[in-house]
Hints:
alpha/beta, Rossmann fold, eight-stranded mixed beta sheet, globular
Amino acid sequence: MNAKRVMIERIENGDLAISPDSNGADLPEGLVIHGYGGNKEELLGLAYHVAAAARVRLRLFDLPGHGPDGDDLLTSRTAASAVQERVEAIIRPSFFIGHSLGARLGLAAGLPAGVAISLPGPALFEGGRRDLLITLRAHRVREREPFAGLVEILNDPLAPVAETLLLYAANDIKSAADTAKEWRDTVEQVERIPQTGHLDIVSHPKTWRTVSNWLSARIEENPDAAK
């Protein structure tokens, strides 16, 4: 059952908290982590729909080196620290929803379950310069040099987490498509989202429905594990 109302609140550090009207019910809580060159607002539509449909509380934030303010740089250390800070701020951290780089950071955070959208593998940039500039958007990221933080995080060791929903775009970057193929028999569910690319997959209604349904089913089957 969908919530009748979803509330969006700006909280500490400029983060956004999204929650359905729960009449005081104790709901599962999760993090929403954007990708390289993105920001929390890009995932607001996805988060709003999932909060309402799956009846979960979500927290969105800007990764280091992102957002209009600050002088922090994106590195493996600063990104992991930012994620861990939000995990500790949630009363009952249950899951993450991450896009691209955010999916890798979510998987490394040690949460019980997660949704990985367009998950890239180790740093391997393919395609023309124009395509890379459009997809990676390095001009929107503060780093010691272009792509330095991205490469560092992508090259950190990463192992599949069994309780993962992995989504990839029909026209995704090769690295994300390869990861989906490699992890198909390792994670719980892998789905291809049609008529999407690496960036706009987060805005597609099928992505919203698939994430909501997966979280709802998991909560119904094992409510204690989702708290």
